[in-house]
Amino acid sequence: MRVLVSRLIPGCLAVLLTIGAVGCATKSGSGTGEELLANEERIPDQAIRERAPLDLGTPVTRTSPGMRAELSARNATGAERSALPDVLFDFDRATLRIDALPLLDANAKLLANEGAKRILLEGRGDEMGTSAYNLVLGERRAQAVRSYLKQLGLDIDLRTTSYGKDRPLCFEHQQDCWQKNRSVHFVVKE
Questions:
Q1: Closest by alpha carbon to 121, among 97, 87, 169?
Q2: Which own/partner pairs from 95-101 qualify as long-range (CB within 8 Å, at least 24 positions apart)?
Q3: What is each CA distance from 161 to 10, 72, 138, 187, in whole angstroms?
Q4: ∠ at Cα 78 (77, 84), nearest 5°?
Q5: Fewest CB atoms within 10 A around its CB: which of 84, 110, 146, 187?
Q6: Which pLDDT tens digit goes with each residue over 65-91?
Q7: Rounded Cα–Cα distance for residues 15 and 21 (Å)
C-alpha cells in the first residue's frame, strides 16, 4: 500500500500543478487570449489623430496642381471672395473659440447694416480623419456659428452646409493650412 501511495501522490501532484498552471495562465493574460476575445469589450481608437507637422523647407501638398485648380474652380466661394473673415476652430472641436466671438459680433453687425437677406455658412475640416467624420464635424461647426448669430438677434435666413475635408480652402500639408481649413466660411447669397 505504501508503494501505491508513493506512486499516486507524485502523479496527482503533477496533474494538479498542470491544471493550476493552465488555469492561472489564461487568467493572468499569458495565454493565447483567444478564449477572452468573445467576452471582451472593444473600445475603438479616437476618430482622428493629429500628425506632427513636417519640417520641410518648402510647403508640401498632397494634391496635384491640376486637382487643386479643379477644386478651386468647384469651390465657388473661395477664401478670398468674401469680405467676412472665417471663423476658426480648434482641432477636432466644434465649439466656438473665445477669439471667434468678437469676429462673429463684427460679422453680424456688418451683415445687419448691409441688409443681407440670406447667408450660407460653410463648415470645413482639415485633412485628418475620414471624409464622413469631417462632414459631420463641419456641419457641427456651421451649426455652432448659426446658433451664435441667432442668439445675437440676427434676423437673416442662415443656412448651413458642410464640405468636410473635400473642399479645402488651403491645400498645403502643414499646420497653418490645416488651421485655415478648420473653419466656417460666410457666403452672402443675397
A1: 87
A2: 95/144, 96/144, 96/145, 96/148, 101/148
A3: 77, 17, 8, 11
A4: 80
A5: 110
A6: 555 555 554 454 444 445 789 999 999
A7: 10
- How many CB atoms are located within 10 Å of the residue 182 CB? 25
What gap in Å lies between CA 168 and CA 98, rounded to an integer? 24
| The dihedral formed by the CA atoms of 106, 99, 60 and 165, expressed in degrees to the nearest 10 | -70
pLDDT digits (tens, 9 = 90+) for 90-125: 999 999 999 999 999 999 999 998 888 899 999 999
Q: What pTM was computed for the model?
A: 0.59
Specify the CATH number for 65-188; select among 3.30.1330.60, 3.40.50.880, 3.40.710.10, 3.40.50.720. 3.30.1330.60
Q: Which residue has the cell 456659428?
A: 145
